[in-house]
Amino acid sequence: MAEKRKLFEDVGASSAPVVPKGGLIDGRKGARRGIRAWLVSIFLLVAVMIAVGGLTRLTDSGLSITEWRPVTGAIPPLSEADWAVEFEKYQSSAEFQLVNSQMSLEEFKSIFWWEWGHRQLGRVIGLVWAVGFLGFAAARAIPAGWTGRLLGLGALGGLQGAIGWWMVSSGLVGENVDVESYRLATHLGLAFVILGLTAWYVFLLGRSETDLMQARRVGERKLVGLSTGLMHFAFLQILLGALVAGIDAGRGFPTWPDMNGQFFPADAFYVPGGGGLWHAFFENPGLVQFMHRMAGYLVFAFGVVVWLRGRQSAHAATRTAFHALMAMLVAQVVLGIVTVLTAAHMHVAITHQIGAVILWVLILRARHLAMYPVAGSIREGTA
Hints:
Distance between the termini: 55 Å
Strand content: under 5%
Structural class: mainly alpha
Largest sheet: none
Order of helices and strands: HHHHHHHHHHHH
Radius of gyration: 26 Å
Number of helices: 12
Shape: flat
Low-confidence stretches: 5-27, 377-382
Mean pLDDT: 90
């Protein structure tokens, strides 16, 4: 016969506490914090890579190295004889013969170091990715479902290196003195894809899978849709900016809001090197800059619409993210106008490119918080 319990006896006093079993949602958690720190380092390196790439372009240094040697190219010239060999290779290019025929060896060294640094930074990024991925994989510390994502980042990095040479090689054939603008746009576009994916993964790894799943249930779908549209629109504007840089279109019309006294540039469909009408959309400086300007206005207008919706979010963190996005969007428009008025002065132009990186990340952050809101506290006024 079971022993009777006393009236006020603690029913659970003699029973072992029940510990909830985790893992039903999180799966193998892995070293989320460590992988996040590793991805942050890759993100920062890629951001610096974009800035260095922009400076390489602005200093006309991109064609100074005429060969693609992924491994042996890491060693720069170490003697005057080595420098003479590199300079001789450059002297056979159309850029030297048609533009820089008076360049001295010392002047060549300055542009060589820009391009070498750009390529060397790419090697460093690849090495950081490989060491990190192999290390986490060997330790079996990669969270469930993340191996493919992290491996994909490495594959995109390798593809970016190949596209980089595909771009450079276009400026080393025939009488070309610049790389093909659409190849430059492809190269820069992929850099922003890699940067965006890395940032998104950093955002995801900052919270547990359980937290993300619960947050997604209260996600703001309309706001996610709007911010997704803004993300795509901003990416298109980045590609147009690359086309502007590729043909130095930012230096031809240093007036605003008109373009040398006209709304639509004269001879907009003239193709300098000949070719079909569609070539003008890639090669005519006036038309390319006009498209970049008009797209900038549209991105700004749509950004205001997205911000007005974002500021109505029920979540304080989401509202703050959209306020930051809007502030940077205004700053980027101002930087764009100053870049035009200064005929793409180097310091202003590179600041404008860095601004694009910051704006891109802020758009992604706002989109992430719209998709995975952070629950606030009514007591603390952060709901």
